[in-house]
Amino acid sequence: MIKVHLSRLMGEKRINIADLSRLTGLHRNGIAKLYNEETDGVKFDTLNRICEALDCEVQDIIEYIKEEKNDQK
């Protein structure tokens, strides 16, 4: 499972979606989908712009969480 931490990161930096949109040149709707974890993919360019604007690393924004398999029979 991929977990998106954009909302937490933006909260820590006290920046809203409109501000991030202005800083990155990305559409507010795309940022909102990522913010609310309602997207099924993200472009590298988007991650690059967000990282530059928020002065962070990619792993600060997205995280892979290994799901435990239930091997019960």
Taking the alpha carbons of the first and last residues, their distance comes to 24 Å
What strand line-up does the widest sheet have? 1-2
Let me know the number of strands.
2
Helix content: 40-55%
Order of helices and strands: EHHHHHE
> Which spans have pLDDT < 50 for at least 5 consecutive residues?
none
The profile of the biggest β sheet is: 2 strands, antiparallel
Broad structural category = mainly alpha
Rounded to the nearest angstrom, the radius of gyration is 14 Å
Provide a count of the helices: 5
Domain HTH cro/C1-type: 6-61
Organism: Paenibacillus terreus
Pfam families: HTH_26
InterPro entries: Cro/C1-type_HTH (IPR001387), Lambda_DNA-bd_dom_sf (IPR010982)
Primary descriptors:
73 residues; 5 helices; 52% helix; Lambda_DNA-bd_dom_sf; Helix-turn-helix domain-containing protein; Cro/C1-type_HTH
Itemize the secondary structure elements and their pairings.
Layout: E1 2-4, H1 6-12, H2 17-24, H3 28-35, H4 44-54, H5 58-61, E2 62-64
Antiparallel strand pairs: 1-2
Helix pairs in contact: 2-3
Textual characterization of the structure:
By secondary structure, this protein is mainly alpha-helical. The protein has helices spanning 6-12, 17-24, 28-35, 44-54, 58-61; strands spanning 2-4, 62-64. Strands 1-2 form a two-stranded antiparallel sheet. Helix 2 crosses helix 3. The protein is globular and about 45 Å long. The two termini are 24 Å apart. The relative contact order is 0.23. The mean pLDDT is 94. Residues 6-61 form the HTH cro/C1-type domain. Pfam families: HTH_26 (PF13443).
